[in-house]
Amino acid sequence: MAVDGTWKLTMSTPIGARPATLSLASEGGALTGTQSAEGQSGQIAGTVNGNAVAWKVSITNPMPMTVEFVGTVDGDAISGSMTAGAFGTWRFTGVRA
């Protein structure tokens, strides 16, 4: 699928740009994989519909929360928004690694 593979993300947050690595695998409408950032790594679970992707990852640092991502894959680029609960919603971009 067009979304499968490893992605280098840049997450735009209020405390600056934060890098992450995202590995995606799709099967039917299900999206699985891992996301790593700042020494943490977690399993993701989500959905894929054509080039539209959505996933959630649980983090523990700086505090336990679930971050939700919604985006679109366009060739070797990915972009969208991420929501960190009550802390807000920010943009993310990425390229295929």
Secondary-structure element order, as H and E?
EEEEEEEE
Number of strands: 8
The average pLDDT is: 94
Whole-Å distance between the termini? 16 Å
Strand content: over 45%
State the low-pLDDT regions, or none.
none
Helical residue percent? under 10%
What is the quaternary state of this protein? single chain
Write the layout of secondary structure elements.
Elements: E1 5-13, E2 16-27, E3 30-37, E4 40-49, E5 52-59, E6 65-74, E7 77-83, E8 89-96
Keywords:
single chain; 97 residues; mainly beta; eight-stranded antiparallel barrel; 8 strands; 0% helix
Structure commentary:
- With 97 residues, the chain is mainly β.
- It has no helices and eight strands.
- The chain has an eight-stranded antiparallel barrel.
- Strand 4 and strand 5 form a beta hairpin.
Précis, in short:
This protein has 97 residues and is mainly β. The protein has strands at residues 5-13, 16-27, 30-37, 40-49, 52-59, 65-74, 77-83, 89-96.
